[in-house]
Amino acid sequence: MMKNNIFKQLLCIFLICSFIIPQMPITVSATNRETYFQDIPESQWYADAVRYVYNNKLMSGITDTTFAPASNVTRAMFVTVLGRMDGVDVKSYTGNSFKDVPEGQWYSAYVEWAVQNEIVSGYSAEIFGLNDYITREQMATIIYRYVNFKEISLRDSDTAVDGFIDEKYVSAWAKAGLDLMRRTGIIKGNSDGRFNPLNTANRAEAATVFMKLHSLIVGADWISMKFNALPAVENIVYDDSEHIYYANNISIIYY
After folding, report:
1. How far is residue 31's CA from residue 17's CA, in Å, rounded to a whole number?
2. d(CA 203, CA 78)
3. CA atoms of 163 and 226, how far apart (whole Å)
4. What is the rounded distance in angstroms from the CA atom of residue 12 to the CA atom of residue 130?
5. What is the pLDDT of residues 12-43, one digit of tens each?
6. Beta pairing class for 236-239 and 244-247
């Protein structure tokens, strides 16, 4: 009976925070694990994003003490992080759809998962472009296809823009992804209003993208009140000092 009461109280608080006081955002962040990346000063714009993806075990450093924020992200890397976020069972995805994706590598199962679920495609029937640096329009398209694959409806951002001044340079296959980025702000344009679709992304930018995407997806699950997404009561912990409810190490309500 006590557990039921706690659960009902939590749901009531969530509804109040979500609907009655919409200006109070739902935050999604993992409990802090100590990070020792010597190349991530706290003053940098990407410091919180790096901490977030590290805490949520989406991205790690290239060494125990180095994150390499300025290093480019390859197509294999991006798909791997997305697969980690989805909790892909790598044992379920064997074989290789492309000649340039060998089996048994750290990225192999994730690429195969993405291909089989039509989240990503190759340059041809045989070439994936494993080590090619991922472009902004490729990231947008992969995220768009992933959201459709998961059948998730993401909230529009309060800072959504009407468009980008260089939209005419976006590839036809990337238009839908661009629109999702425009609405949700997962990938934002530059200060001059350009999306720069063919520019590549570095690890700091990728960390920011995955922080925003992961936050929106977890938030969407709670807002839609899917009971299969609600944690067990015994896994809910309240941090009185921060006024945050945690479930499975993810903060679900902040007020």
Report:
1. 21
2. 9
3. 32
4. 47
5. 444 334 333 233 333 344 445 555 699 999 99
6. antiparallel
